[in-house]
Amino acid sequence: MDEIEAIERATLAGVPPRAQESWNGWLLPFDDGTVGRCHSAVPLRHEAPEPGTLAGIEQRYAGAGLATVLRVPQLPAFAPLQAQLRAAGYVAYKPTLLMVGRVSDLAGPAESSAAVELSDSAAADWEQVFLGEGFDPVDGASRLAILRRGRDSVFASVRQEGRTVAVGAGCFSHGWCGVHGMRTLPAFRGRGFAGAVLSALARRAREQGIERCFLQVEEGNVPARSLYARRGFAPAWGYAYWKKAVGEGGS
Predict the structure, then answer these.
(1) How far is C-alpha 147 from the geometric centre of its chain's CA atoms?
(2) For the chain, what are the domain ranges?
């Protein structure tokens, strides 16, 4: 299994859809939650898709009763597919970076001395962050439920003033540590708690013998990108989601 396929399969191990299948060099997750990676078809290799790929993907999502969403790398090999998507009424949204790093860099000195608790499950105190101030409670509940499905995951949290204020999850799969669910309550940002969570996850990954890590971050999230860059993450490739515009058979 090459690096791209390992990352994409490890991604869905950390945010598992209700069902998935491999088809024609693509990984097709089927889910009705709010996590885009859980319900968007993604290529397992960065090569030009075969003719008929879009039609085949659409047929499979229609058969599952779901709208077709694709997660397409922003690479020259996919330019013909992007043109086909536009012609078919799809629009691109939420440009995102896939960033990779080394666990040894991530495990370096934390930016905060705050203690980080690690657990094999996302306990009820996680809800204080995912459903708390500054976040959409519907989206938070969906994301939390999906994260809780993850196997081989560890859940990190920082407590301050008697409550959980920062969280993150790491999933150890296919030789990678995937970082997911990084959130800090607005009133507690800028204190290094996210960095402390990353360090704790990296230390656990190192105990598992894993040397590489990855995460996804929206291109416009400059504070998060800066944090990840300081911890040794670098962009590997970018992608955008594609779905049909309203009025074109999509929503």
Answers:
(1) 10
(2) 3-97+238-244, 101-237
